[in-house]
Amino acid sequence: MPCPVSFEFFPPHEPGHQARVLTSAQQLATVSPEYVSVTFGAGGSTRQRTQDTVLALLAETSLSAAPHISCMAEDQAGILELLRTYQDHGVERLVVLRGDRPSGGGRGVFAHAIDLVRFIRERFGSGFQIEVAGYPEHHPESRSPEIDLKHFKEKVDAGADGVITQYFFNADSYFRFVDDAKALGVDVPIVPGVMPITNYSKLARFSSTCGAEIPLWMAKRLQAWEAAGDDASLKAFGHDVVARLCQRLIDGGAPALHFYTLNQAKPSLALCDSLGLTATR
Question: What is the helix (H) or strand (E) element at residue 49, kind and residue range?
Fold first, then answer.
């Protein structure tokens, strides 16, 4: 049976760009994803746009949509209102995160994702399936791998049904993370996050923010092709590297793959095609 997949979108900045997200989602629907998720901006900055995108996906496609819910929100009443709206529209799955802090610092109504997971479980019981984040290489703010793993286990124990990892390019980091988590008693699915490579500058910027390592041998090639304006070679190399990574993850027992699409269907579809995941399940 093909490996299950899911896809992540971000809410568009301009209302007129909503159609592009829906078009990409409809194209990705051809591989029958388990669901598509929609991100939540720093400091809750995209709350309404996230909600609008989720509701549009539910209304205009056949896909199951999973909104990101962040601690970086205005207050508990606002989070409750948002969750009730999602429940009323048939949302069954949430991706629960601490979220990015707003520029200039600050914090949300909850300090950590574990607090938000507990809050949702207390108020909604098993009404939502909850996914949380995992960091195979490291959380960018963690003091040590041991502390990071301890907090990760506590977050899962608070009521998570599954885990989506930050993207990475070293499969060994994922397999070690899974082994370490299992050794602590974590028994929920840990789904690897996958980032297609189409632009080196953007990838480097994202990676420096989230703590994902770009191996030097990859970075040097991508930098050279970008500097030379050789977009075709960069994309072909990026596709091959990520396809090989995905195949190793599948062969190693990854329960599913979660693609960070950046609202583009073509790179993720090409990877699914190379992996034999394009047939409707």
Answer: helix 47-60
122 bridge partner residues = none
Answer yes or no: is pLDDT of 278 > 90: no
**Locate tokens 């989602």: which residue?**
25
CB 29 within 8 A of CB 272: no
State the DSSP H helix or E strand holding residue 88, giving kind and residue range, or none if neither: helix 76-88
114/83 Cα distance (integer angstroms) = 17
Burial degree of 54 (CB within 10 A; 0-12, 13-18, 19+): buried
Q: Report how far residue 232's alpha carbon sits from residue 108's, in angstroms, rounded to the nearest whole number.
A: 42
Instruction: Give the pLDDT mean for 23-36.
Output: 96
For the question of whether the overall pTM of this predicted structure is more than 0.85, the answer is: yes
- Burial class of residue 254 (count of CB atoms within 10 Å of its CB; 0-12, 13-18, 19+): buried
How far is the C-alpha of 149 from the C-alpha of 28, rounded, in Å?
33
Cβ(79)–Cβ(119) below 8 Å: yes
Average pLDDT, the chain: 91
Tokens 């286990």 locate to 153
Is 122 one of the annotated active-site residues of the chain?
no
Residue whose tokens read 């988590």 = 181
* CB 25 within 8 Å of CB 37: no
Based on C-alpha coordinates, what's the Rg of the chain?
18
Q: For the ranges 44-53, 106-115, 227-236, which has the lowest average pLDDT? A: 106-115
Counting every residue, how long is the chain?
Answer: 281
